[in-house]
Amino acid sequence: MAIATGAVLVLGLTACSAGSSDTSSPSDGTLVYAVGEPDHLSPGRQTVAFGQVMALFAPLVMLDDSNEITYVQAESVESDDATTWTITLKPDWTFQNGEPVTAHSYVDAWNYTAYGPNAWENTGQLAGIVGYDDLNPVEGKPTTDAMSGLVVVDDLTFTVQLDHADSQFPLQISQSQTGFYPMPEAAYDDIDAYDRQPIGNGPYEMTTAWEDNEEYTVTAYDDYAGEAPKTEAVTFRAYADTNTAYTDVLAGNADLLYLPASKMTVAEQDFGDRLYAFDAPGIDYLGFPLWDERYSDKRVRQAISMSIDRDAVNTAIFGGLYEPATAFTPPAMAGTPEGICGEFCEFDPDAAKSLLAEAGGFEGTLEFVYPGGIGVDSLFEAYANQVRQNLGIADVVATPTTDWAEYYDSLVDSSVAGPHFGHWGALYQSQQNTLRALFTLDGGCTLCTGNYTNPEVDSLLAEADSAPTQEEAEAKYVAVQEVVLEDFPVVPTFSNKYAYVTSDKIAELPALAGSPVIDQITLK
Predict the structure, then answer these.
(1) Strand residue runs (E) in 130-212
(2) How sure is the predictor about 361, in pLDDT bands with cuts at 50, 70 and 90?
């Protein structure tokens, strides 16, 4: 489950899903968003319906591309010690059924999301709150359904006690961490029905319930207390084939689509200035089976990294939209030490061959492994070709698994055969999220990195979390990257851009953290 947060994010953006085949032309006042089929629409559950849920809900705070906080539902988020935080809400906000949004709306929703027996997908986002472990005991059933670290002070104020000092908490409650969204009292009357037609506190409301494989429309909520949406209605249309969706946007039958990987090299020619590539908090990398002695010497991993011409791959596979990675976090994250990877992320086949020779060479088949069905076949074939040619290893292959489930199982049971697919799309723009996820035991994606851990990394992350200012925290996260670089457990490959194409009906496509701000899209 833990791996899903970052990994499924990219799948939700790029993979196929069952959907409607209705491609009728939209009405002039409605934006048609070509998407995948949702998994859930409850904010504590969804993992591939970010756009849909963000249209229905408003977060406590928003992070802009400069990592600055804008208060939305929250009036303030304050702490004297970075451990106990006081959240004060703005008055006069309502859910779309007229219920007032109160401190209880948040505390009750967070407790429900965190309660282990509910098995809600975004429960881990709340794991730093005192009492979370009581709702998720290692053995047996929980004896309480409320976290002791959440206390309602009054209608518009509640406090959050964390299990350790964490200066990044205000970033964690920003827009993409939907486990921190509120729910109205009406939600608990029939939680399954609510999942089909959520009542949110955001700019749009659902007038009919979502049905499997059917498009649905949300309309502007007249009493929304935030900035009014610029488009009256949005239709979310699910497609079974992203290539079909691409053709529909090109023809004007749909208006917005996350760019499929298979179309990256032709999108600029097809769409011109209607292709948007936004800086994003995502990083691609190659993980390794560190238990396999053939990859246990870091010089082998470094040699593989230096044998890959990232610029050539970027041009051939991504149409030049991505950026070669030079650190373990992307440039979109504040304080990322660009260039820290140095020579080990630069193309140098001669030095790569020397490093491999120093490590004793490589015996047997070097097998790149990736999940089948997500559109990265050409990418991994390019990696295999480059390593074969530039390292002089005769037998290098790229092998897809049948699907994502089989790939995930190979990580769980430590049977993955070689260097493998890795992606982490952070849900808030802090180095903390990516570094903790990839390089700590409980971070959520340790499986992705060959079960790599280092006590020094854990210690430095704790110091960074408790730093009194963002600037000091960022400096300490750089120290974490320096330790990881010394071990070089993974090969950073590309910093992501989240790319979209639009019909000529869209006049402007605003974005934050790489994703369109749906309610602020302007139609011509």
Answers:
(1) 150-154, 157-161, 204-206
(2) very high
CA distances from 87 to 69, 80, 101, 471 (A): 14, 13, 13, 22
DSSP 467-500: -SSHHHHHHHHHHHHHHHHHH--SEEEEEEEEEE
Residue 171's closest CA among 69, 88, 72?
69
Distance of CA 460 to the CA centre of its chain: 24
CA separation for the pair 450, 78 (Å, rounded): 38
Predicted pLDDT of residue 514: 87
Kindly report the pTM of this predicted structure. 0.87
Per-residue b/e over 10-46, b at no fewer than 16 CB within 10 Å? bbbbbbbbebeeebeebeeebbbbbbbbbbbbbbbbb
The Cα–Cα gap between 395 and 285 comes to 22
Interatomic CA distance for residues 150 and 375, integer angstroms: 43
Helix (H), strand (E) at residue 396: strand 396-400
Instruction: Specify the pLDDT at position 28.
Output: 58
Q: Are strands 30-35 and 233-238 parallel, antiparallel or unpaired?
A: parallel
Terminal-residue alpha carbon distance, the chain:
42
CA distance linking residue 126 with residue 173, whole number of Å: 10
What does the block give as tokens for 371?
A: 């999940």
Strand partners, 89: 74
Per-residue pLDDT at 396 exceeds 80 = yes
Note the pLDDT tens digit of each residue in 133-191: 999 999 999 999 999 999 999 999 999 999 999 999 999 999 999 999 999 999 999 99
- CB-based contacts of 312, cutoff 8 Å, min separation 6: 386
Helix, coil or strand: residue 193: helix
Which H/E stretch holds residue 33? strand 30-35
Token pair of 275 as six digits: 């292709």
